[in-house]
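Handout, tutorial session.
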Amino acid sequence: RRWRPLGALVACAALLGLGSFYLRVVAHDDNVFGQVQRYAATSIPPHAVVLADEATGDLISQPYCREQEAKPCLGVATYAITWDTYLQTTSTLADGYYKRMMKGAVKLKSWTGFNGTITVWRLRR
């Protein structure tokens, strides 16, 4: 019986935590991963090859090459998705082929939120 108040307190804290998460991430539209996932699903052709980091590439249904191993996408990729945070940027992790492919890229859409900035680019062929 004396554990009931403690159980109620734990349940209340868990609900408050979930509510806080919902209000911060789900209800607000600043989760850039969710935004780029929706954009890719509706605005990037399903068979277009995308140059992206693994965290972003795993969210989209299009085939992708990692920015650290971009050579297989040379001459094939038509889009790129970059993710910049306070700690790192896609371009600092990228190889020379990535930098070559990004020359002349056209910015299509960008989102900034609590988890950084994600930008979708159209690559030159």
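The second record follows below. Compare its token runs with those of the first.
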Amino acid sequence: GRLVRQNTVRERTTFLYESVAPVPFLNLPIAEYSLSEGDGVRIYHFPGDSVGGSRVLESIEKGQQLLSTWFGPLSSPPDLVVMEIPEMWGSQASLTGGIIQTADVFGERGSMAPIYHELTHLWNARDLDLPSARWNEGLATFLQLRMAHELDGENLDDAARRIADRIVTQAAQTPAISSIPFSRYGEVGLTDLSYRVGCLMFYSLYSEMGQASFDDAIGDFYQSHKDRGWTFDGLVSHLQARWPADLTGFFREWIYTTGWYDQLQTGISPAAIGFER
């Protein structure tokens, strides 16, 4: 929110904040913050994290430019506020509400991947699925890997391979991975899986389409839906319309069945799942 006015009577001060656009919530963390400012970005960080605050500011400025190049401009010019919160409190992002980001990112050697993840959510249209499988979390996880590759020199393929290995290992404790398809994650309360399964799905699609075609398709989906919202089935239809090859088998393996897992556990690269090689 932005400060509209403050009024002090005796020893009591009342602050009035408002959002930059209609929104059902405001983030108002209160602490002894220090402030780092850039072009359209304000970082409120704990006093001991000034170095980390500068790193976050630089990463956000570079990240916004990269995402704009990939997917086009946001629905409104960014006036972004990032607020540091204690670790394990739960990060989140909103174009109007700003980003609340856990303290681990602000450490001098902290990875910028979590802030990249939250930043990509600014390029999400409103989710109309109820309950939602939250495919946007899978896209954000994939895009954070891409951004870490572009901006920090991390290897995209290695990162995707680590996520694949983690899913196979996790399946022993979470049998639902092998029996419940992605499309039903919201219905059965398994959206924690949306981050990793969705990440591998978009990684596979990106590997097949190539960067230019993938970015054009995702960017056009955002630009054409940012004012009216989106659904998972709408995304499927959009991607099929933007790609000349038949994607029926791809969507069947990744979204409507657990065929992706059957292949992944045999050692097939996630980039190859859903496509005949």
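Points raised in discussion: Residues 52 and 106 are 4 Å apart (CA to CA).
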